[in-house]
Structures are given as C-alpha cells and as structure tokens.
Amino acid sequence: MRKCKNCLLPDSVPGADIDASGRCRACREQHDDLRERDEALRQEYEADLSRTLATVRGTGDYDCIVNLSGGKDSCLLLYRIAKEHGLRVLAFTADVNIPDVAWENIRRTVRLVNVDHVVYTPPKDFYRKLYRFLLRNQEAGGAVRTVCYVCAPLYEGYSIQVAVEKHIPLVLAGYSPGQPDPSRMKYEFRRALIEDTDWTPPEVRESGLFSEAELRYFWNPGRYSEGTRFPRYLAPFHAWPYSQDDNIRKVVELGLIKNTTKASPVHSNCPLNWLLMYSDLKNLGYNPYAPEFSKLIREGKASRRYWRIMAPVVDNMIRTQTFLGRNVRESLKDLDLKTDELRITRAAQTDDTMFPGRKPKP
Predict the structure, then answer these.
(1) How far apart are CA 292 and CA 338, in angstroms?
(2) I want to staple 117 with a disulfide (CB 3.0 to 4.6 A). Which of 5, 26, 54, 91 is the partner?
C-alpha cells in the first residue's frame, strides 16, 4: 500500500490523491493561511472555554461532568479540570466494552484526583443485539463509522441525562482534535442537537428489532418538560493546544496512568474496535483511523515516527488476529457473527440522516 510520505495517509483512502512526489492532496493544500485560520479558531474556542469554566463555578453541587473512558485524554482532562481549574467535577463512565487496561487507568485517576465517580452499566443484551444489527447492515463509511456513530451518541446521551437530572450546566469530553467527525462536532455540540433532536438512529428504529424500552436509551429531549435546562457539551482538547505525545507523557508523569504502554490508544481502546477495524480493512481496504492520525501528524499533533512503525503493526495484528488482534476472534464469537456477515448495505450517512428528528414527542 502506497502512503503519503509526509502524513502516512494510505492511497486507498478516498480523496488521498497521492501525486508523483509522494504527497497527498491534504498535504499539498496545506498553506500558512489555513493554519492561521485554524489557530485563530482554536484561540476563539479557548477563550470561550475559559469564560465557561469561570461561569459554571459554584452553580450547584457539581460544576461539570467529565466523561471518563480510561484513555489518556479523558484521564488528563479530568485532572486538568479538577486540579488546575479547581472545579467540582463528577466523573462519569458508561461501562460498555471498557478493557481491563482502561479500568486500571480509571481507578488510578479517580483515586489521585479524588472526585466523585458515577458508573452506569447499560444492559449487555441490548448492546449485543445493537452491534449484531449494525455490523450486518453497515453504511458506506464502514464499520467504525456505522457502530461508533451510534455507540458514542449513546454514551454522550447518558452523560447529558445525568447532567439534566443533577442540574449540572456543563459536560466535557476528552475528544482529541478530529474526534468526532467535524460535521458532527467542532468543539461544541450544536444547541439544536441537544435541545431539539431525537438521537434515535432511523435505521435502528425502522428495523423492528428493538422495543420502545430499548429505543429509550437514545437521547431524546422531547421526554423533558418545557423549560428544562440542558447543559452545554464541549471538547476542551479542541480548544487547548494539543499533542498526543505530550498527553501520554503527562498522564504517566502525574501518575494517572502507570506507563506509556497503558496510555497508548492501541492498548486502552474498546476491544470491539479491533473487529470494526478488521471489517473496514476487509471492506474498505484501509484502517478507518488512518485519516484521523494522518491529520494529527500533518498538524504536528502526533508523532510520524511512532505511527510509521505502529500503524503497520496494528494492521498486521488485525489481519492475523494475533496479540491484541485476538479481539477480532473474540468479538466475532461473542456476537455470534461470521466474517461474511460484516456487510455494507446502506448509503453513507449525513448529519441529516443521523439526526433527523426535531421537537420529538415523548
């Protein structure tokens, strides 16, 4: 597979357009004025974040919720908000596919930062049925986009619900720049998404496989009375200067995470992700996280040297289902799926098709 000599983007990624010099289109189109525009926008976000953190301080029992998944960024975010900014934080974890490494990171971080921590464990049977349906009916963007863009909104919705019930004005997530897709979120979820939109995926509702009780796991503001106050939902690492390597070093130095291996996203990520990457390598011909990490490399936020070595190692583990790649076999077994059932059957989703409902009824 040919890759961009600058950012390592594979030529199989749509739009890569690697030229004779070995550079992809994104690298060729990267200009100082674009970098200046992005930096100006980041500084605008940073100023808003500073104002927001000052505004919410002392407004209730908790100033904010920090979603804690056990990855390097969420652990560091919790530390910075609680210790550096002095806010009263409620850490929130949704216990869905969290590996042992991430649980160890969560426990160490909560103990060191000394904050209250809520863990919500949704029904495993619901998620098993959901994953089976989604993997057998993927959209054109592949398995990661299909599954993660249903699973992540569930987690986000759980934390928003806790914030509403406890009158907490702010939810913070440890998304790195580029997460989630910018079409869905740039620093902040749009107010209309939180206040006016039913997040139940149409394909899930229309499948007829899920009960009304199961569909209620998805965020739906229409279940709340008029006048309900909904929180803002921000991604601080979209506002602060970001470096993947610096964040890994920092969480280890602070003692939040035991070592750099356990801080690596390769080790702390959701085990199901290995099956999703396997499906996308099979159906799309490239690792779905390659564009995200290439963008971070292009912007100087991730190490090219690290990912030049690690990306092929990860792909090889997935294809051979060895070492961490054994999660491919284990997930197939847990979900009772065969590899030929990992199918793309639907057109690509847009923001309108993902979140079509507005002012829904309870």
Answers:
(1) 28
(2) 91
